[in-house]
Amino acid sequence: MSDSKKNQLKKSLGLSFNIAVLIGGTIGVGILRTPGTIAGLLDNYWLIIACWLFGGLFVLIGANSYAELATMLPKAGGSYNYIKRAFGNYAGFLSGWFDYITNAIPPAFYCIVISEYIIILFPDLKNYSTVIAISLLVAFVLLHLSGVKNGSAFQQITSFLKVICFVCLVVACFMYSDVKVPVIQKDNSFFQIGLLFGIFKSLQLIIGTYNGWNSVCFFAEENDDPGKNIPRSLYSGVLLVIAIYVLLNLAFFHVLSVETIAKSNLAAADVANIIFGKNGAVIVIVISIFSLISILNAFMMIPPRILFGLSRDGFFIEKGTQVNKGGTPIVALLVSSLFSLFLICIGSFEVLFSFAAFTSIIVWGLAYFSLLKLRTTEPDLPRPYRSKFHPWLTILAIIVSLALLLGFVYSDPKGFGIIVVITLISYPLFLVLKRRK
């Protein structure tokens, strides 16, 4: 069997996996933690809900564009392929590595956070935090080395359990009626600079919690019917995530006031303590662990697919395209896992999260531009799905992406600085790889 034949990903994933990986790769602990921070920034009930809806609508418009891109070029690596096709090798290289870094950091973070939650439940393990985190990483590496089907089944089970947990929490909140929802006074300082900063900072956090909505596109090459499954899973998955996020916020504000939630580091735990009594925090920790295990599994699968695509085009080592009998890009998985192990051991990777929203917006914006360009330059490319209301919704997505990017630069100049440094370093590295190729 030739190397090219041997190093192909298997078409073994379907619609149920797509929806599971979108939900699993998007809904994490962020939705349980960020409501308090956002309430502190905005201090206005309707404005908070509007920002969550705005973030969801932005993602839904993006799904409209990605549905066409992913079915038009159903290749491992997602956005990288579309940007490279439209704007050339360097744009593809830079966006691919932006996307890779953004998706390769979370596994280490989630392993550490899960270990911290386990220690809260079992305090006697407090001296073994790093050991637990590394053990989790090794366990998931072994799971995915065993084959794509096992990783897919695990994703579907954990995503289903996650949705059930969140639905139960929402229902419990709305059933609670011992406290009246306080009347929220309208904030007349909407156009003040301080509040404008709060809006963009809140949107940055919200976009961060929605990050992962396009997870299905990384697996397009392994899908048994990408033309039908990807659009269906993008729309249904994104709508489900929006519903859960908005309902959770409404549910939290049904139990506690905006002012109270604004002072909370883990709003969900404070809400659960009121509803369930002293065991409330334990319930939220269990929900958090379920949520994190599901998202960890998704993010163990995503970075190797990006690295596989980059390797195939000569932007990483040639062995990065090696696939085992179970359909796992084995070298790409091991390299990504070693990166995660390094981050777990040094434990100082949190600063890298500051530019996650930046890189996401940049990559998404470039992908939307790619759709516009490819419609013009390659109109005959097979398009099993065509985005609705093109080009107007695509143009709208680009305008909103640019506005959000400028807002993030304003609210987080440090994160923008990291992006600039990475971009400056990238071009000489690209030239070296190009010369080697």
UniProtKB/TrEMBL annotation:
Pfam families: AA_permease_2 (PF13520)
Signal sequence, renumbered to the chain: none
Major localization listed first in the record, in broad terms: membrane
Keywords, in A-Z order: Membrane, Transmembrane, Transmembrane helix
Transmembrane segments: 12-33, 45-67, 128-148, 160-177, 189-213, 234-256, 281-302, 330-349, 355-372, 392-410, 416-433
Gene Ontology MF terms in the entry: L-amino acid transmembrane transporter activity
Database matches in InterPro entries: AA/rel_permease1 (IPR002293), AminoAcid_Transporter (IPR050598)
Cellular localisation: Membrane
Superkingdom to which the source organism belongs: Bacteria
CC annotations in GO: membrane
Membrane topology category: Multi-pass membrane protein
PANTHER family: AMINO ACID TRANSPORTER, SOBREMESA, ISOFORM B
Protein name: APA family basic amino acid/polyamine antiporter
Organism annotation: Flavobacterium circumlabens
